[in-house]
Design brief:
This protein has helices spanning about 20-30, 45-55, 75-85, 95-105, 120-130, 165-175, 185-195, 200-225, 240-255, 255-265, 275-280, 290-300, 315-325, 330-350, 360-365, 370-380, 385-400, 405-415, 425-440, 440-460, 460-480, 480-495, 510-525, 525-545, 550-565, 565-585, 585-605, 605-625, 635-650, 650-665, 665-679, and strands at about 5, 35, 65, 110-115, 135-140, 150-155, 305, 310. The model is unreliable at about 225-240 (pLDDT under 50). The chain has a 6-stranded parallel β-sheet, sandwiched between helices. It has a two-stranded antiparallel ribbon with strand order 7-8. It is built from 31 helices and 8 strands. The protein has about 675 residues and is mostly helical. Helix content is about 65%, strand content about 5%.
Length: about 675
């Protein structure tokens, strides 16, 4: 059976720890909270990952991994955990309330990896979860225990310095680096393991130096440098002497440009690619043309890990780099370059939203979410107008792909801190209005919509005014006022007419307004006109490689086909919508599409299939925190779907299929639903 949940991949061999692994497995069965403690680099995360993977079969609702190391403050702690367990909450509730409700009734294992820098907030979160979610098991990794009553602590010591496991780890990492251990060298390797006290990270760093310096050279260097190096004592407790020495020695062995790059890379909250490293780290003596070779040198020394075209530093290594960045006096400068890179990334994403790279940008911004948040924190403290610019550029992406709470929080803070409205206020107000609308806070959304309209009309450009009209139009649609919606977007398009090229090269804002027009035509019963406009726009989107608008056009075409008595055609459009929304990571859109697909199947007399899809839809709706939502007319369609499906099969068959869809793994069930329609 395929494991439910998410666990990171293991990129290297797991060595030793058999007794600790057995003990941890027993603790997971007996206790609700187990915390693996130990010094940095001792292997806490590796042990937790292996234990979680082996225990997966014990948890019917999955094993889930929340990497907390990239969080710089506790502001987004609950949101990060919600993301980790596939909760895409679209309600205005407190995130902790939504998380507890989502987990309630589930039997799962949740791993909180890297709690030490947020220990107080993690302790409070663990206490809340254990109190409100009785079938939840928590596994945490931290350099310090949480010290709450439910906690069992597994203190992880280094590998036995004179044991077989330390030697095996060292020699395997030597082999990985292209320098196998020769039989006559075993005594020298064993001496190195003894000097490094069996600390896994220290062993790996030392092994990475063997190809260049040889075993004898590594031994000599360690013998002469068993003290803290280069003034780094304040960052490393005395009990970590071996690790501190090895990391410091690795740093000392680096060439000057490699040390500088190591320090500057510490500004990244999560992974990065070569282009990002070049943009953020190239300055002064470290030229752009030096970055690729210098970065590869750090990979060769195990300072940086590489997976495909992505790079990342372990927490302990990044902390050491951050210490040196401080010593160099470059913290503010590096954070500024990092924020500049994020702003540039966000601006490109917004500019290329309508086009063949749209799907790429949704994935890219999801991949760099932690770094965008870090840049937001920096800009909120140092340059609020630019914080408005950044969140105004990425807000719509975040709102549409699961980061709604983060988007709203940052939008509200940035707008509040930036006293004087600037050129990017309209985009930020528009994104905030969309977020509030998706959360169902229509009164507040209308207030923000009015502000957005006023600001855009006074200070914005044509696209700002069109986006303000789009927001007002969507609100009117959701409140059951399609005529008002049509009038709003029509007026905006007349005020700012399209260039001579018309719909051949529309802006993203104009395209969204046209989408509101299609919805309004359907809502007023003008189905033939709506269908014609939707098909025309869909052809344009296909030609441009655009997905977001196309998905909602398929939604409308499916609804129109249902209303016109063409359920097979409706099923095809609904399937196309779901493919697009799945690719964008839009759980809200997936839930809407599944409702339509279920209705189309029921109208064809496929009651059991319709029940299964309806159950899957309900699972997605629950992941958003909402009951079924959408335009007012969808309520009657959903009721008719259930009536027709139950009429086609027995109630028992309907209930069984519905619960199969509801209780199964949502992504797998979505794939099954798409396969059935395709077949």
């Amino acid at each position: 059976m395929r494991m439910r949940g998410y666990l990171p991949e293991e990129h290297s061999s797991f060595v030793g720890r058999e007794s600790e692994l057995t003990l941890l497995q027993d603790l997971l069965k007996a206790r609700r909270l187990t915390t693996i403690t130990g010094l940095g680099g001792v292997g806490k995360s590796r042990l937790a990952l292996r234990a979680a993977r082996q225990a997966a079969g014990e948890y019917p609702d999955g094993v889930w991994w929340a990497d907390l190391s990239m969080l710089q403050t506790d502001r987004l702690l609950v949101n990060a955990v919600a993301d980790a367990v596939d909760l895409s909450d679209h309600t205005p509730r407190m995130p902790i309330d939504a998380l507890c409700e989502w987990l309630a009734g589930k039997r799962l294992l949740l791993v909180l990896d890297g709690c030490e820098h947020l220990l107080g907030a993690c302790t409070a979160l663990a206490a809340d979860l254990l109190t409100t979610v009785p079938d939840l098991t928590l596994l945490a990794t931290s350099r310090q225990a949480m010290r709450i009553r439910a906690e069992e602590v597994l203190s992880l010591a280094p590998l036995a310095a004179d044991g077989a496991d330390a030697l095996r780890l060292f020699t395997e990492r030597m082999t990985d680096g292209g320098r196998p251990l020769q039989p006559h060298e075993e005594a020298v390797a064993a001496d190195i393991c003894h000097r490094l006290e069996g600390i896994p990270l220290a062993l790996e760093l030392a092994a990475a130096q063997v190809p260049q310096h040889g075993l004898a050279g590594v031994t000599a260097k360690l013998a002469s440098r068993f003290e803290a190096l280069d003034g780094s004592d304040h960052a490393w407790p005395p009990r970590q002497q071996a690790l501190r020495t090895t990391v410091g020695w690795s740093h000392e062995l680096c060439r000057p440009l490699e040390r500088l790059l190591w320090a500057r890379l510490s500004v990244f909250a999560d992974g990065f690619d070569l282009a990002a490293a070049t943009r953020v780290c190239a300055a002064g003596p470290l030229a752009e043309e030096d970055i690729a070779a210098t970065l590869q040198a750090l990979v060769d020394q195990s300072v940086v890990q590489r997976s495909g075209d992505r790079y990342r530093m372990l927490d302990t290594i990044r902390e050491y780099g951050a210490t040196w960045l401080h010593e160099l006096g470059e913290e503010a400068e590096a954070a500024g370059r990092h924020a500049d890179w994020c702003l540039q990334l966000a601006a490109r994403a917004r500019a290329e939203w309508f086009g063949a790279r749209q799907m790429y940008w949704y994935a890219r911004l999801a991949e760099t979410h932690s770094d965008l948040c870090a840049a937001m924190e920096h800009l909120l403290a140092t340059d609020p107008p630019r914080a408005v610019e950044l969140i105004g550029s990425v807000g719509f992406f975040w709102v549409c792909c699961g980061h709604l709470h983060s988007a709203r929080a940052y939008l509200e803070q940035a707008l509040a801190r930036c006293g004087t409205p600037g050129p990017h206020h309209a985009a930020a107000l528009w994104s905030l209005g969309v977020a509030l609308t998706l959360q169902g806070e229509y009164d507040e959304a209308r207030r923000i919509s009015a502000r957005c309209t006023r600001h855009a009309s006074r200070n914005g450009d044509a696209d700002d005014r069109l986006d303000a009209a789009y927001l007002a139009g969507v609100l009117a649609l959701l409140l059951g006022r399609p005529l008002e919606a049509a009038a709003t977007v029509d007026r905006a398009q007349e005020t700012d007419p399209a260039p001579d090229s018309g719909m051949e090269e529309p802006s993203a804002a104009r395209l969204r307004c046209r989408l509101v027009s299609v919805f309004a035509l359907t809502g007023t019963g003008r189905l033939a006109e709506a269908r014609e406009m939707a098909q025309e726009m869909k052809q344009l989107c296909v030609a441009k490689g655009e997905f977001w608008t196309r998905a909602y056009l398929n939604y409308q075409l499916a609804l129109i086909a249902l209303l016109q008595g063409e359920p097979r055609e409706a099923a095809g459009h609904a399937r196309a919508m779901l493919v697009g929304k799945r690719g964008l990571g839009d759980s809200f859109g997936v839930a809407l599409g599944l409702d339509l697909l279920a209705a189309a199947l029921a109208a064809q007399g496929k009651g059991e299939e319709a029940a299964f899809v309806s159950g899957t839809s309900e699972a997605y709706w629950r992941a958003t925190g909402h009951p079924q939502r959408g335009m007012p007319e969808l309520g009657a369609m959903r009721a008719e779907c259930e009536r027709a499906a139950r009429a086609a099969v027995s109630d028992q068959t309907y209930e069984a299929a519905f619960h199969q869809g509801l209780l199964g793994e949502p992504a797998q069930n979505l794939a099954r639903a798409l396969e059935r329609v395709q077949g």
